[in-house]
Write a structure and sequence with these properties.
Elements: H1 7-20, E1 24-29, E2 49-55, H2 64-74, H3 76-80, E3 87-93, H4 95-107
Parallel strand pairs: 2-3
Antiparallel strand pairs: 1-2
Amino acid sequence: MAQSMTPMEDAMRAKITEALKPTTLDIYNDSHLHSHHKAMQGVTSKETHFRAIITSEAFKGKMQPARHRMVYSLLKDEMAQEGGIHALQLRTRTPEEEEKQKQKEAQE
């Protein structure tokens, strides 16, 4: 089997899917937008900066900081390793919040 070209994204997707059973999971690799930053000089990884949109029942009854801690906890190994995740931007919603957002966007 060929080695994945996106092992970090693959690990993120697997861990989030297993733990949170999301109804929406969109992961965007924005590393190319940050490769010129001073902190990224000498880093050979092409998977350091991500945005993730996650909709899950697991977020019900939790405020945003608690939701983000849930995701950070899942990805702690990927964030700690050399050349791992340097930045992670999250949008976390419950299915009801996602539905409200879709309705709001449809009215605009």
